[in-house]
Structure formats: structure tokens, C-alpha cells
Design goal:
Blueprint lengths: L2 E2 L2 H9 L20 E10 L32 H20 L14 E5 L3 H14 L7 E2 L18 H9 L8 H4 L1 H11 L16 E4 L7 E4 H17 L14 H7 L1 H10 L3 H19 L7 E6 L1 H11 L18 E8 L5 E9 L2 H5 L11 E5 L12 E3 H14 L4
Parallel strand pairs: 2-7, 3-4, 3-7
Antiparallel strand pairs: 1-10, 2-8, 5-6, 8-9, 9-10, 9-11
Helix pairs in contact: 1-2, 2-3, 7-8, 7-9, 10-11, 10-13
Length: 416
């Protein structure tokens, strides 16, 4: 069971407290009393971008051409960059209220660390977030020079493509069952794509078979109806959160509710591509290793930012076999500019705990570039890590147990 906690409420409460060692509420007299935030690690998806190619979906899947974008394909838009900066501005206040970062001025050197994938959209998202968080402080974003050298966000070792395919094919309920189970979602998708009765463009998408293809040293790739549905839904979402006029969002045929319905395809694609334990644990291993390193040891950064892609977030969810719901997005769907995070907390007893969360702007907060404040916060939802909980506090995980879960999975993988 997931427990939601509003970040604005936390901020408001903590801002009312005095002293540098602000403590969070916990069961009085229990072992978790007086929790103090010591570190945070966030695995963030990049912000708003256009489709990665001029024709988002194959010919014949839409009645009209996809809309144009002013930004280069696949790159962070100025709107997306500002959305990331607004998140950084908010988290400066939020984390300073919780005693993690200074309220004014710059954090000490090394207290804020940012690492991004080699893609421009991830690098720029990290830079804009950090600029909002630590304006003028010169915090540098580290990133590899190419995808070929990106062993963290684009790992190419340790995955046997054929074994990964077989693992993905065992995912329930199975590709053959999806058209029947997703009939309502396909109906909305077909209407938005603008089924043309003459040319049949945009029609009968659900009748196109879906299949998975093996990729050498990589995750399986979805092809067919579910792939088209995922890409189309994500493209219409990006049009919405970019702030385009509604007449240009899904050719004027998509409401926000329609987008929310269609987005279930996005999470579903990841369920098959990276949801199987064999795939998720191998693809997410480098990110999980970084998270464990950032939370371990006597000294370390107060905030570690890892900025990559929705595949990284989806694989990390599969690594822990966790479930999340954030803001106004479907279950397990990683929003643009959102992040899966991990808090390291210390109780008065000296015991340390990890608490996992997901944070993201709502669709309208991002669409309208609303300032984020204690009265208008982004979503901040705690979720349970399976196999790791404290009695009465299902989202609190003893650090030693968390460490054993991550280290155990990493140890079981082939050496890289």
C-alpha cells in the first residue's frame, strides 16, 4: 500500500520549526522517533522534448501528419528547461526546510552532485535543475562524451538479448491478451489519431499485432500496436505539457482525460521491455550501484542527482519490484521531469532508514510553468520497497535491509 504525503505540508511544517537540526514526525517513543534527513538521491527523467524523430509513428497510423516543433527533435525545449529550473527552485526551499541544504547562498563543495546521460535533453535538464537549486553557485553536471561510453544510463554489458527476450515474453498477462484488456484505451487512441474511413489511416490500431524483438546486449524492443500506442500517447502528452494550444494537442482531439487514459500504454510498454527481473536488474544495476554508493559511507553528497530517461526509471522500478503513482499520471508511468528518489534518515537512536519517493509536477503545473511553492507543491509520494519495511511504517526501510537488497541483487549479476 502506498502512502501519499504532500510535500507542501512537509515544507510548511518544517518552515515553522527552528534550529538547524529539524526533525520529522515519527511515532513517539518508537525506534524511528526524531527522524532527521541526511541525504537524498534522485533518479530523474529529462524534461519536455519533441519526438525523437520527425515522424513520431509509422506512416498510416495517423490521419494527419504530426504537428511541428520549434526545437530540434529529441532535445530539451526551452519550456522543458524552465520546468526543470522551477523544480530546482522549489527543492532549494524544500530541502533547506528539512535541514539538508542551506537556505541562502551556496552549499559547500561536493554537497550537490549531478550526473547526466550523454543525451542533450538529460544534460540540459540537470543543468537547469541545478541552476534553480543553487543559482550562480557553479555546480557542474558530469556526463559521458557519447552513448557508447555511457555505462550508467545506457548499459551495454551483462544483458543477453535472447535470454532477455524470453524473460519479457513471460511477463503477464502476455501480449496476446492486451488488445482485449486495453479495448477502452485503444478506442480513445483511435479517436485521437483521427481514423480516416477512406484511407484507413489511424484506424484499427489494436488489430495490428504486437511483438517483442531481441536486441544484442540490450533490452527487448516492442514493435506493433502497443509500441505505436505508447509513442503516440507520449507524443500527445509532450504537446500538452509543452504548453501548445489545445487545437494542436492531438490535432485538437485530445483532452487531458484522454491523455491520461492513453498514457497507460507508456507504462505498459515498459512492463514488457524492462519489467522482467532478468532485464530490470541488469539494466538498472549501474544506477542502483550509484544510489547505494551515494547513501553509504560516513561522508557523501547531501544531494545526488542522476538525470537520464524513462527507461532508467522504469528499470529501477523493476529492480525493486515496486509500484508508484505520482501526480495525475497513471500507475508506474514516469513523467517528464519527474524523479524516483531515496531519502536517508537517521533516528535519535542512531538507526538509519531509507524511504523511497516519487516526485513530479502535475501536467498543468508543467504546461503552465506554475511557480512551485508550499501552497502549490509538486507531487511527492512515498512508496513501499517490497521486502523492506518497519512495523507500522510501511514506507520506512532499515538501511541495512536496503543495503542487503541492493547489494544482493548486484552480487548475483555477472561481473561487468
Amino acid at each position: 500500500m502506498m502512502r501519499l504525503q504532500n510535500a507542501g505540508v512537509i515544507t510548511a511544517i518544517l518552515l515553522a520549526l527552528s534550529g538547524p537540526a529539524r526533525a520529522e514526525a515519527a511515532p513517539a517513543g518508537g525506534p524511528t522517533e526524531g527522524l532527521k534527513l541526511e541525504r537524498v538521491v534522485m533518479m530523474m527523467r529529462h524534461g519536455v522534448r519533441p519526438p525523437t524523430k520527425p515522424v513520431a509513428t509509422p506512416a498510416g497510423t495517423t490521419a494527419q501528419p504530426w504537428g511541428a516543433w520549434s526545437s530540434p527533435y529529441g532535445e530539451l525545449t526551452p519550456h522543458g528547461g524552465e520546468g526543470a529550473r522551477l523544480m530546482g527552485v522549489y527543492y532549494r526551499t524544500f530541502l533547506s526546510a528539512r535541514g539538508l541544504l542551506p537556505r541562502d547562498g551556496c552549499a559547500a563543495g561536493g554537497e550537490v552532485v549531478a550526473l547526466a546521460s550523454s543525451k542533450q535533453r538529460a544534460i540540459k535538464t540537470a543543468e537547469m535543475f541545478v541552476e534553480g537549486l543553487q543559482p550562480g553557485c557553479g555546480v557542474k553536471v558530469d556526463y559521458p562524451d557519447s552513448e557508447d561510453n555511457d555505462a550508467i544510463f545506457h548499459p551495454s554489458e551483462g544483458i543477453d538479448g535472447d535470454i532477455a527476450l524470453q524473460a519479457a515474453l513471460r511477463q503477464k498477462p502476455g501480449l496476446a491478451a492486451e488488445p482485449r484488456l486495453r479495448a477502452a484505451e485503444f478506442a480513445v487512441l483511435q479517436r485521437v489519431l483521427g481514423c480516416d474511413p477512406v484511407t484507413k489511416a489511424g484506424c484499427d490500431i489494436a488489430k495490428k499485432p504486437s511483438h517483442l524483438e531481441a536486441a544484442q546486449n540490450d533490452t527487448p524492443e516492442m514493435e506493433g500496436a502497443l509500441s505505436v500506442a505508447s509513442t503516440a500517447s507520449q507524443t500527445v502528452l509532450l504537446e500538452y505539457v509543452e504548453g501548445k494550444p489545445m487545437s494542436e494537442v492531438g490535432w485538437g482531439r485530445a483532452s487531458k482525460a484522454d491523455i491520461q487514459t492513453m498514457l497507460r500504454f507508456h507504462a505498459l510498454k515498459f512492463h514488457y521491455e524492462v519489467g522482467a527481473p532478468y532485464v530490470a536488474e541488469r539494466y538498472a544495476a549501474p544506477v542502483a550501484q550509484k544510489i547505494l554508493e551515494a547513501l553509504s559511507g560516513a561522508q557523501g553528497p547531501k544531494l545526488t542527482m542522476l538525470v537520464g530517461h524513462d527507461t532508467n526509471v522504469a528499470a529501477l522500478r523493476g529492480f525493486f519490484r515496486a509500484r508508484f503513482t505520482v501526480a495525475d499520471y497513471p500507475r508506474d508511468d514516469p513523467p517528464p521531469g519527474g524523479a524516483m528518489g531515496f531519502e536517508l534518515l537517521k533516528a535519535q537512536s542512531g538507526q538509519r532508514y531509507v524511504r523511497a519517493f516519487y516526485t513530479a509536477q502535475t501536467m498543468d503545473q508543467l504546461r503552465e510553468l506554475q511557480p512551485l511553492t508550499a501552497s502549490n507543491p509538486p507531487s511527492y509520494a512515498y512508496f513501499e520497497i517490497p521486502g523492506c519495511r518497519v512495523a507500522g511504517e510501511p514506507t520506512l526501510c532499515p538501511f541495512e535491509t536496503f543495503q542487503n537488497i541492493v547489494a544482493g541483487k548486484l552480487k548475483a549479476l555477472p561481473k561487468r
